[in-house]
Amino acid sequence: MTYLMITGRTVNQGVTVENKTSAEYAAETSTCFMHEFDMMELGLDDGECIRVTGPCGEVVMRVSASEEVETGTVFVPYGPYANHIVAAGTHSTGMPDFKSHEVEIEPTDEEPKTVHGLMEDLGGLAYDR
Amino acid sequence: MTELLVKNACVIDPLRSINAETMDIAIRDGRIVEEVSGAAEVIDVHGMLTMPGGVDSHTHICGTKVNFGRYMSPEDMRAGRTPRRGPLHATSGYSVPTTYGNSYRYSVMGYTTLLEGAMAPLEARHTHEEFIYTPLQDTMANTLFDGNWGIMEAIRDGDTKRVAAIIAWTLRAVKGFGVKLTNPGGTEAWQWGKNVSCIRDPVPYFEVTPAEIIRKVIEANELLHLPHSVHLHANNLGTPGNYTCTLGSMGLVPDLNKKRQTLYATHVQFHAYGGSGWPDFCSKSEPIANFVNMRPQIVMDMGQVMFGRTTTMTADGPMEFNLYRLHHEKWSNHDVELETGSGIIPVIYRRKNLVNSIMWAIGLELALLTESPWQCLLTTDNPNGAPFVRYPEIIALLMSKKYRDAEFATVHPDTAARVPLPAIERELDWYEIAVMTRAGQAKALGIQEIGKGHLGPGAYADVAVYPIRIDEVDPSVDHQKVIEAFGQTEYTIKRGRVVARRGECLIDGSNATFWVKPKVSEAYDMGKDPDFIEKFDRYYTVRMRNYPVQEEYLNRNRCIETEAEI
Amino acid sequence: MIVKDAVCPFCGCLCDDIEVEVDGDRVVAVTNACELGTKKFMGEKRLKNPILRDGDAWKDITYDEAARYAAGMLLSAERPLLYGWSGTHGEAQCVGVHMAELVRGVIDNTSSVCHGPSILAIQEVGHPGCTLGVVKNRADLVIYWGSNPIDAHPRHLSRYTRYAEGFFLDNAFRDRKVIVVDVRKTETANIADEFVQIKPGGDYAVLSALRAIVRGKTETIPRTVAGVTREQLVRVANLCKGAKFGAVYFGLGLTMTRGKYKNIRNAIELVSELSRHTKFTISAMRGHYNVYGSNEVNTWMTGYPFGIDFSRGIAFYNPGETTAVDILARKECDAALIVGSDPAAHFPRKCLEHLAEIPVVQLDPYPNATTAFCNVQIPVAVTGIDAVGTAYRMDGVPIRTRQVLSSGYPSDREVLLKMYTLMQEGKGQ
User: ω into residue A107 within 30 of 0, thus cis?
Assistant: First the structure.
């Protein structure tokens, strides 16, 4: 199924933002908030894993039911998980489309990677594993 | 010890009544001295015109609104660019250059001292940060009190001493130099989207009039014995028929100070308009100049307009909104809590536009009709009337009837019927220009005693040597030579060092900031006044302890202490 | 020891009424701050010393070695990128500009991925704004548009709007109306008097509709606009026109969605239109505590607020070309200095793939996502905790942060000055 992915700041993302290698930061920024109806359609329960595929890749997140989002839309706290699939085009503004990406979502048995894991996938070397 | 001897200078130094005498200027460790040793470095200037370093007593170069002018105007930044080279940093901008751009260009024109015309106290730290990056001039800031709640309340209560006490506390806290009133009362009314029409209109809620604000703040200013007088941007700027309001404001001013004026009226060109609307808009420079001629207690500056593109910026928020509705260009506004406001829009002054042509004429008329050059100083209210790089052209216009006539022939044809300019024969001389660009400005600011604006022993060794011999050039004919000479010094010397030569700045200097600390008695220390503290805590969004500008923000700290009468 | 009136270095609210209790070199309690600020003051797990990536391992190095590495990297680069700057003090940002100028690099700050589009809009139509205290004391109508202060700027509501005392309001909580416009029913929407829910991407249309209604063209408005009913639009427009003082605070909900800077332009033009009827202002909810300062510093020193390219010697500005995401995605830069931000957490993956291929030096107190892409990371003092310096609040008010404890870490400015001095020597100056 196709959804509109919106990213944004949350308190939990904010309180963990100075400690981005923590499990709490990873948990918060790998959470995909979704409307219950959409979850039912995909056969998802709260906390289950999903594969989110964007224009330039895929990433595994955990779904969380939310009344704040409309059906057809998902919300992901701003961070490395969402950015793993966000395209870098800026339409000559300097700003990527952080709040208007169409993504495919499907259930998966895989677990979300750690932030370190994501960075190492892209050629980095984690420091304090 | 470093010594420098400038030999064979043709010196005009009005504060010492020196008019074109050939002499040597001796400099030691940044100050003018009687004589130097044989070891001094010698610069022979071969009879070139030599004056004290230029002083601009009203310019907008640093701080929140100036920087916003840059921020919103990449097109202006592109219009003036130089790369980093040698000790010099890159510059951008034409009408609102970067701090380095301002500093280098002023220095090339021989200016060594600048007064930022409007600093909101709450944002003073910003102005001082930019001063640090204005390396080749000493700087000072007029501090805005036009919409200050505490002051308006004290005026309502009839307590002039409290007005003085609030000014004293604020100047000290924000490291300010002088007291500025911009559209007094109007900036507070504008925080409700309103304005005051002239000096008798009460300010909403506070129920004081601009006239009361002007008069009481003048009295407070003199109680504090500040070096500079109150610096007034009158109400009603830029509207047809506003000259009556200007005359009314000037009429409020008693003569309270023997050393200097009691009121500095700024950019009076913008306040000398006749007519009942734009269709019959005309010059009223004559009544204004006549009025000033009879009142030694008033000094004004021109606020000359020059044709071309520039950016207007002022604390006068409502005026900028009116201008926006005329021009439909981009508009910025920034109101400052409990204190003042500001607005910015870009403009183009056009020769083909009748109103613009009349404005151009009025500025010149004020300078030519004011008998004493000490009472009408040369400014453009940079960049409001024009960027300061246009000063040399203004000097040439004032010195040459022929040049004025030639320019007049190019402006809107109906201008002649609306202005007295074509009938004015006066041509200013070199001495008068020296008064209007340094000596008069230093005197008006009250900084001649601390060694600015003259070349007497003990003065700061700020010297401008212009590549022109005044015995060989007739300015009434050779206006092009005048423009070239004032556009680019042979030498600009700042605090005893050559900082600019023939259009090139040579060093990355460091300036000094002049500020004023009035000493008041314990009873008038607002820092200990319970009512003042309580209101501050409740209505400002910055804590009182975090408000004062720390001395870390002053490059070289030149504190002027005054003994207040309170 | 208790430090009073400390300045919180988290978000653009720059709250300066924080009380911090310190025991030796540790913060033990924080009063008045929100959850975000408290967490920042109590921050732990700092990097202990500079580190260097050595193949597949990390080794400790000295500050001098790290500075030499950074200076050498920047001097030998053909197109260095100097990015970040929002999480440090203005004095350090100034050194950064001089460094970029010296090596003819590109200097950009995080506003290119937050309110850069707002700046582009301001450069088209200007910005009618004011300081936060003007709103606190006067506003009887506040509109949060595409911003969610409860999550991102938690004390904005209590210090300046919904729950703040105001000089000209008898009962501020009752007399001040709050409208929230968003695509999600956020926490902030729950405390609003009126919530306007827009379909994603519909902000521009809704702003245009409001402008039309304010201009008296209600009959041109269809029954719904981007999911918002005409009745609600008319109600909102009337609330705006009827207010004595209205203030709009917009967030990334406008800058990051379709239309980007055109959304902001439309919002500003709505406010300019409303200014003909009553008093109205608009301001951006700036994120990092000193992102606005990086715009200010860059502007007075170079003429432009972000995205400045010195490759021609002069300052050149063209967002979309000279901004960090674009330069990384085009694989253009050949070295990067990162200060006071974490691009690896906040940039699209394509940018990170290039970061992995070039030398990177980062100044940051903590290991973060970008650490993985660093050749060298240099821990520095945190401005507002163990370093002082200037920060500009979201409304342009500059405040000097306080130092609440001594840690022995050098400040960003000190480390950058050391690099800059080495670079000047390297250039023979």
Answer: no
Q: State the average pLDDT over residues B82-90.
A: 93
Letter for the amino acid at B285?
S
* pLDDT of the residue at A129: 61
Q: What are φ and ψ of residue C290, in 5° steps?
A: -130, 30
Task: Give the strand pairing for B230-233 and B178-182.
Answer: parallel
As a CATH number, domain C46-113+289-426 is 3.40.50.740
Q: How far is the alpha carbon of C29 from chain B, nearest alpha carbon, in Å? A: 20
Mean pLDDT of C247-254: 94
pLDDT tens for B476-514 read: 999 999 999 999 999 999 999 999 999 999 988 889 999
pLDDT number for residue C359: 98
Which secondary structure element, helix H or strand E, spans residue B4, and what is its range? Answer: strand B3-13
Above 90 in pLDDT, residue B468? yes
Contact: C151, A11; criterion CB under 8 Å: yes
The ipTM estimated for the assembled molecules is 0.96
Residue found under tokens 């050149």 = C316
Question: What tens digit of pLDDT does each residue of C31-53 get?
Answer: 999 999 999 999 888 999 999 99
SS3 B553: helix
C429 has pLDDT over 80: no
Question: C235 to chain A nearest CA, in Å?
Answer: 24
Q: Does A127 touch chain C (CB under 8 A)?
A: yes
pLDDT at C120 (0 to 100): 96
DSSP-derived 3-state class of residue B291: helix
Token pair for A121: 């996938």
- The residues spanned by each domain of chain C are 46-113+289-426, 116-284
| Beta-carbon separation of C314 and B81 below 8 A | yes
Distance from the A104 Cα atom to the nearest Cα atom in chain C, whole angstroms: 17
The answer to whether the CB atoms of B193 and C275 lie below 8 A apart is yes
The count of C-alpha atoms lying within 13 angstroms of the C-alpha of B162, restricted to the half-sphere facing its C-beta, is: 16
Q: Give the DSSP letter of residue B337.
A: T
Partners of chain A (3+ Cβ pairs below 8 A):
C
Cα gap B161→B158, rounded to integer Å: 9
CA–centroid distance for C123 within its chain: 18
Q: Would you kindly state where each structural domain of chain A is located, as residue ranges? A: 2-121
Cα separation, A35 vs A55, whole angstroms: 22
Q: Find the angle CA(C402)-CA(C408)-CA(C411) to the nearest 5 degrees.
A: 55
Beta strands C360-363 and C335-339 are: parallel
**For domain C116-284, which architecture applies?**
3-Layer(aba) Sandwich (3.40)
Architecture of domain A2-121: Beta Barrel (2.40)
Where residue B111 falls among pLDDT bands split at 50, 70, 90? very high
Pairing type for strands C177-182 and C360-363 reads unpaired
